[in-house]
Write a structure and sequence with these properties.
- With about 190 residues, the protein is mainly alpha-helical.
- The chain folds into two domains: about 5-40; about 40-185, Nitrile hydratase alpha /Thiocyanate hydrolase gamma (Nitrile Hydratase, Chain A), CATH 3.90.330.10.
- It is built from eleven helices and four strands.
- It has helices spanning about 5-20, 25-40, 40-55, 55-65, 65-70, 105-110, 115, 120-125, 130-135, 170-175, 180-185, and strands spanning about 85, 90-95, 145-150, 155-160.
- The strands form two sheets. It has a two-stranded parallel sheet.
- The longest helix is centred in the first third of the chain and has 15 residues, at about 5-20.
- The protein is globular.
- The model has no long low-confidence stretch (mean pLDDT about 90).
- It binds fe (iii) ion.
- The site of fe (iii) ion has 6 residues, from loops.
């Protein structure tokens, strides 16, 4: 978002109004920005993915109940009160959308990218997922079913990508560094 975009101007006006009314302080705003810029981001999700690749028991627990499984990480940012993790396999590719707005697992992925909020993505990924994924540069083999998961205020999804071949000797930290945000939304693979 550019500094002078209509959205930025509107956000600034809203912020001033809330501060004037005493509903918000400037330090609240700074703290929230620091939280999402520095402490919450896709690396949290990547750490979860890497652990699932290395630890079969954790993987099973994560697929069973995502919210409970990630509790020990103590991630901040919220929006994971009902986290459902869906695993890619040789037969299935998963992709996540919020058709209504932009619901997203903040604690794991930070704030959603602009395209995730775009009405075109939100409607087209449901109707023609294979074609939209092509536009992201991802060709899903015809033999692989594409499942589109529609997020809501109640349920947030995370895609567990397949572990890439040739990474057998990497530890969790090195593996986490390989996992891009897009792979956890399902518009990319590793
Ligand atoms: Fe939403």
């Amino acid at each position: 978002m550019s500094e002078h975009s209509p959205q930025a101007i509107r956000a600034e006006a809203l912020e001033s109004l809330l501060i004037d009314q005493g509903l918000l302080s400037e330090s609240d705003v700074d703290e929230t920005l620091t939280l999402f810029n520095d402490r919450v981001g896709p690396l949290n999700g990547a750490r979860v993915v890497a652990k699932a690749w290395c630890d079969p028991e954790f993987r099973a627990a994560l697929l069973e109940d995502g919210t409970a499984a990630i509790e020990p990480f103590d991630f901040q940012g919220g929006e994971v009160q009902k986290l459902v993790v869906v695993a890619n396999s040789a037969d299935v590719h998963n992709v996540v959308v919020c058709t209504l707005c932009s619901c997203y697992p903040w604690a794991l992925l930070g704030l959603p990218p602009a395209w995730y909020k775009d009405p075109a993505y939100r409607s087209r990924i449901v109707r023609e997922p294979r074609r939209v994924l092509e536009e992201f540069g991802l060709t899903v083999p015809e033999s692989r079913e594409i499942r589109v998961w529609d997020s809501s205020a109640e349920v947030r999804y995370l895609v567990l990508p397949e572990r890439p071949a040739g990474t057998g000797d990497l530890d969790e930290e090195a593996l986490a560094a390989l996992v891009p945000r897009e792979a956890m939304i399902g518009v990319a693979v590793l």
